[in-house]
């Protein structure tokens, strides 16, 4: 048995600077072309060794309402996946999982995926790190489309269902205001609504990649795009008001993050972000953040 111990890991949320949605595939997913960028807002996942059977997950706790606390939680599934791949099952510890959330639930910022990425790192470290980075990325892709990116962080273009990643050169530190909704949106519901509405896919992100390489926030702002935005607004019409208010407050541009409903407002600089946040806070809960941020990491590493 491993001695009683605690391991804590962190993983950041993301914004899709570009999200182009292609046709529906036979497996139920859509082909995507997306540019992910991690933001400096993270969840915390802690694993604590407890008395129990080898490899047993005893419980998952989270103070945030709406977060599942059973085996349907991606962090639970991530720990189970690492334990299943361990070379010595009889030596596995029994653990409890705790999640502290700062990324909104069902908010379009990959909060559940970030929890899974942090859990993968923590579980692997807890058992002596037998799995390589490549093996963890394979487990991440099996868990969900956004999990590989939240494991790696930074700026990357994702293709396939988003799990095939290539690093994108970025020379800008971007300043954002995030406006949160009191109600989440189901990602499958948003995709189904998009299919019903119909759309022309925007799959070319070349200009945005060039703007990121140049590092000019004003140019980047004009190239932000999300094919899912009309569907998210259709399901939650107040998003339209939030986007209008943020741009009227002085943001360079506003965009729905992923499948929504979180709205991300790109600002010219840190001072502008504070001013926009102050205005938007009269309408909704907000946070100021920057991007890009690093990938998932262990406490003390």
Automatic annotation (TrEMBL):
Ranges where the GHMP kinase N-terminal domain occurs: 73-154
Annotated Pfam families: GHMP_kinases_C (PF08544), GHMP_kinases_N (PF00288)
One GO biological process term: terpenoid biosynthetic process
Residues noted as binding ATP in the record, renumbered to the chain: 104-114
Sample GO molecular function, one term: ATP binding
Class of the enzyme per the UniProt entry, highest EC level: transferase
Alphabetical list of SUPFAM superfamilies matching this protein: GHMP Kinase, C-terminal domain, Ribosomal protein S5 domain 2-like
Alphabetical UniProt keywords: ATP-binding, Isoprene biosynthesis, Kinase, Nucleotide-binding, Transferase
Keyword Repressor: no
Pathway connected to this protein: Isoprenoid biosynthesis; isopentenyl diphosphate biosynthesis via DXP pathway; isopentenyl diphosphate from 1-deoxy-D-xylulose 5-phosphate: step 3/6
Domain GHMP kinase C-terminal: 209-281
InterPro entries, per the entry: GHMP_kinase_C_dom, GHMP_kinase_C_sf, GHMP_kinase_N_dom, IspE, Ribosomal_Su5_D2-typ_SF, Ribsml_uS5_D2-typ_fold_subgr
Reactions catalysed, as given in the entry: 4-CDP-2-C-methyl-D-erythritol + ATP = 4-CDP-2-C-methyl-D-erythritol 2-phosphate + ADP + H(+)
Catalytic-site annotation from UniProt: 14, 146
Keyword field contains Nucleotide-binding: yes
Ranges that cross the membrane: none
EC number: 2.7.1.148
Similarity-based family: Belongs to the GHMP kinase family. IspE subfamily.
Free-text function comment from the UniProt entry: Catalyzes the phosphorylation of the position 2 hydroxy group of 4-diphosphocytidyl-2C-methyl-D-erythritol.
Protein name as annotated: 4-diphosphocytidyl-2-C-methyl-D-erythritol kinase
UniProt gene name: ispE
């Amino acid at each position: 048995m491993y001695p009683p111990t605690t391991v804590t890991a962190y993983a950041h949320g993301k914004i899709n600077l570009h999200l182009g949605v292609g046709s529906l595939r036979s497996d139920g997913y859509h082909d995507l072309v997306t540019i992910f960028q991690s933001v400096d807002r993270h969840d915390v996942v802690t694993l604590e060794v407890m008395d129990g059977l080898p490899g047993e997950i005893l419980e998952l706790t989270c103070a945030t309402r709406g977060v599942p606390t059973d085996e349907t939680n991606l962090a639970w599934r991530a720990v189970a996946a690492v334990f299943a791949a361990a070379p010595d099952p009889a030596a596995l510890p029994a653990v409890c999982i705790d999640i502290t959330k700062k990324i909104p639930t069902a908010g379009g910022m990959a909060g559940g995926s970030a929890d899974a990425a942090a859990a993968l790192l923590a579980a692997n470290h807890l058992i002596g790190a037998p799995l390589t980075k490549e093996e963890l990325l394979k487990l991440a892709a099996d868990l969900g489309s956004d999990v590989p990116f939240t494991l790696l962080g930074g700026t990357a273009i994702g293709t396939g269902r988003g799990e095939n990643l290539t690093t994108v050169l970025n020379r800008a530190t971007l300043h954002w205001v995030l406006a949160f909704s009191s109600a989440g949106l189901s990602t499958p519901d948003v995709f189904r609504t998009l299919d019903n509405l119909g759309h022309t896919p925007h799959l070319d992100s070349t200009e945005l990649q060039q703007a990121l390489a140049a590092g000019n926030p004003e140019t980047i702002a004009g190239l932000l795009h999300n094919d899912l935005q009309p569907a998210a607004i259709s399901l939650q019409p107040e998003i339209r008001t939030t986007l209008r208010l943020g741009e009227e407050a002085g943001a360079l541009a506003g965009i729905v993050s992923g499948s929504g409903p979180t709205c991300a407002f790109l600002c010219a600089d840190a001072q502008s972000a504070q001013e926009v946040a102050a205005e938007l806070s009269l309408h909704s809960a907000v946070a100021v953040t920057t991007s890009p941020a690093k990938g998932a990491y262990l406490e003390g590493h």
